[in-house]
Specification:
7 helices, alpha/beta, single chain, six-stranded parallel beta sheet
Length: 224
């Protein structure tokens, strides 16, 4: 029997955002519309656990996200991970958000991830605990749905057990389901943007103008 919470679902969107770009923004916007999310909470990582140290500092990446999402009333910024000296892990972050002073345990939370990140989820810290804390919504390219058979066996089993066919099901319980959705494909990456900037090339139309201006004024992606 579904545990209908009566509370609107909120999206959780974490990442390094080094830098934040239009692909990130479009994923969050399309997820909000496709899944009926009341809010998308952006959470820049302070010290990412599964990749090399970011080129931009936590403070700089936090400011870039702040500039990028300004003016969108459905987007909110969570500064706690970026302001922490501890490594950022998804499950502890969700445990923090489930405390009574934040969301509590009843509101549906939907973790937004790309298909590539989802495929590698078994490498995440305490990944199996994630489904006790949130739903997972996986964005994929149109016409290229997530291939469950190609997932690592433990993740494939979880996906088969927890997959739901309708985004409405995400509102019926606080956590525990997997939903996949197609999003507009944008061939842009933070790595590509950093390479352009390091070579003195223009990142125009890949980033919000406010983020470009901030990068140009601070020059933290320019070789010293």
């Amino acid at each position: 029997m579904p545990d209908n919470t009566g509370l609107a679902a909120h999206g959780i969107f974490g990442g390094t955002f080094d830098p934040v770009h239009l692909g990130h923004l479009r994923l969050a916007e399309e997820a909000a519309e496709s899944l009926g999310l009341e809010c998308v909470r952006w959470i820049p990582a302070g010290q990412p656990a599964l990749r090399e140290s970011p080129r931009a500092s936590a403070e700089q990446r936090l400011e870039m996200v702040r500039l990028a999402i300004a003016g969108n009333p459905r987007f909110a910024l969570d500064t706690a991970e970026a302001e922490s000296a501890q490594p950022s892990y998804t499950v502890p972050t969700l445990e923090r958000l489930r405390r009574p002073e934040h969301y509590g345990m009843r509101r549906p939370l939907v973790l937004l991830v790309g298909a590539d990140a989802f495929t590698n989820m078994v490498a995440w810290h305490r990944w199996e605990s994630l489904f006790d804390l949130a739903h997972v919504a996986v964005a994929h390219r149109p016409g290229f749905p997530v291939d469950v058979a190609g997932l690592p066996p433990p993740l494939a089993a979880v996906c088969r057990e927890r997959h739901c066919a309708s985004p409405a099901a995400l509102k019926e319980a606080p956590a525990g389901r997997v939903f996949t959705f197609a999003m507009t494909p944008l061939a842009v990456s933070s790595t590509q943007i950093r390479q352009l900037l390091c070579h003195g090339l223009s990142p125009r139309y890949l980033l919000p103008e406010a983020v470009i201006a901030y990068i140009q004024n601070t020059s933290f992606y320019t070789p010293s």
